[in-house]
Amino acid sequence: MSGHTTVADQILQFNEELAETTLQLPPGYAVLNPFSGPQKERVLEVTTAFYRKYFNDNRPRRLVLGSSPARRGSAVTGVPFEDAKLLASETGVEVGGYAVSRPSAGFLDDVISGYGGRTKFYADFVMSFVCPLGLVKPNRQGREVNCNFYDNKKLLGILRDFLVGTLERQLALGTDTSVCYCIGVSGNFEFLSEVNEHQRFFKRIVPLEHPRFITQYNGGRKEEFMEKYLSAFRGEGD
Fold this sequence. Notes:
Layout: H1 7-19, E1 30-32, H2 40-54, E2 62-66, H3 74-77, H4 84-91, H5 103-115, H6 118-124, E3 125-129, E4 134-138, E5 144-146, H7 153-171, E6 180-183, H8 187-199, E7 205-208, H9 211-217, H10 222-233
Parallel strand pairs: 2-3, 2-6, 6-7
Antiparallel strand pairs: 1-4, 4-5
Helix pairs in contact: 1-2, 2-4, 5-9, 5-10
């Protein structure tokens, strides 16, 4: 980074670039782009308030990467893994019609609290995605549902250059590349590991179970998984 550009400036610039992005997907698939969607003005207001609050400096941070924004989560707010209700309480900016507390945001909110709160957490980490735009397709009932960039080979083949390019772009945000934390231990981790073998973006990648897997199927083990996240983030056992 050069001059007086902050991490906040760079992330907001990255989001502006995403606003101009169009992806040609296979039939049936669609992109959710919060930065150019119907709520783009509100999203800009929310993201600007959020990033200026927590990233208004030049500190190198480690990346925490999910797969892609959820249809009713980050694909609406523009802030990775932050639910609309949590964001409203954090920034005072309401995101209309979507004050739904998501399980993923709720679990990560607890992890962030355990780390010492948002100011401390976001001083050390940037949360983002391998695919920074949301992906959806209709289910058998014709309803739009989330899908993953690694759902099939054709989709991944089409998206590959975009995914590698945006990963490279995110490293330019003054990222500490000593370690990357990957949310999702299967498809997301496999793709990220495979890319990293060729590109050497990160010295190592630490896989962490997806919050949805934890909250939906392993609710009784939440404390155990929280401790796993916190131990990884604190660099214990490195």
